[in-house]
Amino acid sequence: MLSLSEAESRTADLVAAARKAGADAADALYVCNNSTQISVRLGALEDVERSEGEEIGLRLFVGSRSASVSSSDLSADALAQLVVRAVAMAREAPEDPYAGLAPEDRLLRGPAPDVDGDDGADPSPAALRERGEAAEDAARAVKGVTNSEGAGASASRSVIALATSTGFARGYSTSGYGCSASVIAGEGANMQRDYAYHSTRHIADLEDAAAIGARAGDRAVKRLNPGKLSSGAMPIVYDPRVSAGMLGHLAGAITGAAVARRTSFLLDRLGEQVFARGITVRDDPLRRRGLRSKPFDGEGLPTAARDIIADGVLTGWIMDSASARQLGLAPTGHATRGVGGPPGAGLTNLYLEAGALSPEELIADIKLGVYVTELIGQGVNGVTGDYSRGASGFVIRDGRICEPVAEITVAGNLKDMFRELTPASDLVFRRAVDAPTIRIEGMTVAGA
């Protein structure tokens, strides 16, 4: 793994070589990932994985033609050949009037924000194994748990550097840690599986392994003996484990590429009321220790917190430079990319702000509804907003969460679901996309 300064220098040198070879503009991205993962099952070590890899990608432009190439060989000869190949490819590529580097006057200048994404720790495989074993032991200790699918712990570190021919050359590093457990409760035909996990940037923030395991076991046991539910229209309440999925559908609908292709169900809703008043959805790429925090985007533009939804109103699209040019707008600092191709657009630490009601208050007036803890399948149409997902969870009766239920389908349209969404007060930042418990009125449940 190159040091941060070495990575910045290597990408800048590659860009300079591309310009010297005839490119009108170029950028280069270096990514290195090192990770260790330990898996245990039934108290025995099952697997130890160690991966170390680094790649560098070059994108260059000859006029309005471009090409992208990448290599895991960072030797001088390999990079020289990479440049020659990329220039030859670009000269044969079709013209694209929208392709190009980010505007030079919008690049990050001055000190980069500190997102505190790397703690520098390097836990040993033995320490990771101990954490995985503790998670599984706690899960198997829950009464009713009969088998284990395994538990584990992981540690990783990444270095990312970006350079452009417009004078940008910056990098940053991140660390990452995780712990998980997955167990089975019950016997024979009456078996249920569930899991729990936690991921952080700093190992000091990682939840206690025993707590993770106990939660996995408790969840599996609670799912035993699921019943059926009659079909009908009723309120649906999403557990925080699945409620963040609503924000994923929102994110996909507001990317510049989807809008430019006219494949978004929110195509004509810019500046309009999409959620109820009082609802805020915020993207915060500068949250300290956030799982997707970063000081600049995939094109070198500064990142900043932004309300995607403000008081229920859709405030704008998220765009890389190419989609922004296509729409006649300015890029928003949301470019994402890998080493092998052009940027796209994506969000970082996205969350739905908490509401005023506790989860108990949120469901108190529901006579009959469903509390969803798991969603199955990908039945969402990004063009129309039609939504239909397999689900399991618990029946809500007279304001209380009661018996488990499985093999149901919940359906609606995202435009209606967004308008009818009410968040609870239990927002916790645990993932890259977070939401509290949410209630959505008038959805259709197809049961037995």
UniProtKB/TrEMBL annotation:
Entries under Pfam families matching the protein: PmbA_TldD_1st, PmbA_TldD_2nd, PmbA_TldD_3rd
Comp. bias (Basic and acidic residues): 128-140
One Gene Ontology biological process: proteolysis
GO CC entries: cytosol
GO molecular function list: metallopeptidase activity
Domain called Metalloprotease TldD/E C-terminal: residue spans: 231-447
Region of interest (Disordered), residue spans: 95-140
Domain Metalloprotease TldD/E central: 120-224
Domain Metalloprotease TldD/E N-terminal: 27-90
Coiled-coil blocks: none
InterPro entries per UniProt: Metalloprtase-TldD/E_C, Metalloprtase-TldD/E_cen_dom, Metalloprtase-TldD/E_N, PmbA, TldD/PmbA_N, TldD/PmbA_sf
Family: Belongs to the peptidase U62 family.
UniProt protein name: Modulator protein
Annotated source species: Rhizorhabdus dicambivorans
